[in-house]
Amino acid sequence: MSEHDHQDHKQEPVKKTGCSSCEHSHDESPLPQGALVVASGVLTGIGLLLNWLHVAPGWLATVAFAAATLAGGLLVFPAAWGALKKFKLDINVLMAVAVTGAWIIGEGAEAASVVFLFSLSELLESWASGRARKAVDSLLKLSPPTALVKNADGTEQEIPVADVAVDREILIRSGSRIPLDGEVVSGNSSVNQAPITGESLPVEKKAGDPVYAGTVNAEGSLTVRVTKPAAESTLARIIQLVGEAEENKPPTQRFVDRFAAIYTPAVFVVAILVALIPPLFFQQPWQFWIYRSLVLLVISCPCALVIATPVSIVSGLTALARRGVLVKGGVHLESVGKLRALAVDKTGTITQGKPQVVEIIPIGELSEEEVLRSSAAINTHSEHPLAFAIVETARSRNIEFAPAADYVSVTGQGAQATVDGHPYFIGNHRMAHEAGVCTPEVEKILATIEAKGQSLAVLGHLPHGECRGRILGIIAIADTLRPEVVEALRQIHKAGIQKVIMLSGDNQRTASAIAKQAGIDEAIGDLMPDQKVDHVRKLVSQYTHVGMIGDGVNDAPALAVATVGFAMGAIGSDTAIETADIALMKDDLTRVAETVILGRRTLGIIRFNVIFALAIKAVVLTLAFVGIAGLWLAILADTGATLLVILNSLRLLAAPKKP
Ligand SMILES: Nc1ncnc2c1ncn2[C@@H]1O[C@H](COP(=O)(O)OP(=O)(O)OP(=O)(O)O)[C@@H](O)[C@H]1O
Ligand SMILES: [Zn+2]
Description:
single chain; alpha+beta; Calcium-transporting ATPase, cytoplasmic transduction domain A; Calcium-transporting ATPase, cytoplasmic domain N; 6-stranded antiparallel beta sheet; elongated; disordered N terminus; binds adenosine-5'-triphosphate; binds zinc ion
């Protein structure tokens, strides 16, 4: 799928085309749908029994069938009328015509059966989608309606969450659910975040840690400062996105919609021709051909086909939401099932993103402390993870430094600034070259650091005036692999991803060394941020379906050009949830493998459902056409197919299987 397509899906407005058939408004009728279906079924049964036993006068059975038709018809006729008023021929119109016709030709038993079985299949469908939706609701509508707010005078007061202002302090008792997103002010406790992240182990919380609405506090009590209004909590965002996800239709659904839009009117035309042509032109009996025409109408209901996709998608989305994987649309679930290549970011995705200084190598007469002092002075201005590591180390060694002047960052390379009146740079190998100060001696040291998979920062004097500039020191910085990476990559490969490619701004040798440790097929280093985007584009043109995993913040553009963008650790970052197609609430790469597997299963189930529904329909239509199948058998086949399709889809609700 090209980038273009991808954007299309995102912006495509929700449209309901053609045979919105089986999804008409069930709630319009005053009686509950279930009761009507049961009544219709029982009455049909009574009628059939009376007919069979011959114990009562024949008209009694007819009354039973009429009552059954009425009960089921309360669900069908109003919906049919609604469609007709909008000049639409949907499945309800189809059924209404068929039932009326069946009565006209004196087939009360079959009219009653048709109504009953049709309303039953609709009931099954709304039950199935309701069930899947309820699973999401119960999962997400977790946060309590009120919060215990601390007043200035030390008293506590229970007020609705919607009325709690940001920055108020709330009290979380042990064993209670956290009502709002916030930051722990005091107290220690462990919190079960499974409702949002899907992680089974509780997470320890102390002062300064974030907590999320809907998660469950365990043994300790916490005082929490509210950081977001109730309507903007992470949970609220998830609920909103899951709601929108269902409207983001996958390609198979659009195929089915298009198909149904042509199919239903076509069936009407054929039915009319079948009823009219033989009697008018070939002196055939009217009753016989009208009956066949009705059979055709009834059995053409594409119920199973129409629900083939939505029930599977909802089930798949729900199963993943339970595991802390937020998929923002059926379209992404289907695409993830097609992924063939995966691009990954290095820092924070493959490594933990907490680099540590492991070695300081002075070049020349400076001491380690002096190298660290100047490096920290420049990097105290920087947000780069490597910069943090350097500043942190200087602090921990009690090295005093003043922030450098004239700081300029150089994208993808490092930074320059003035320390003690001299222009300095700190950055990668390329930066040393651009300053014209690299030496073979330095390169030898750099190569050994890189071979170990460590990142590096070169500190140097920039040439200025008389001074020719030179390298003053090298800092080696290591970031450990995430603990689950090797196993996760094994699973990702096993799930059918042919190639995993790491894209990194770090130098090629370091990137390759890390990729090798992690079990990644290929590493591309020395990339500027916009080159990462180009690379993802290239991969898309090569593999068509390409996923990209990143933190969702620094690599938002690369995530956007991938077929499916995954953001890791989205729980703490609204931007990540926003930019990704799939947000992994927990920082856990194995979730990616699970998502791919579930995407594949969903795709497989949808394909099976669609083909199965079409095949059954074709067989029954043929049988009816040659006169073998009557109304009865046809309707039974349709209900059976619908039921099978639903059950098949609901299998996805079970936890994703390990590869
Ligand atoms: N503030 C800095 N201090 C020291 N070195 C830096 C700094 N900024 C960048 N560098 C150097 O430039 C290289 C590339 O940086 P860049 O930010 O493009 O990639 P990265 O984010 O470190 O890696 P990745 O893309 O794999 O996450 C770093 O590996 C480092 O050697
Ligand atoms: Zn060099």
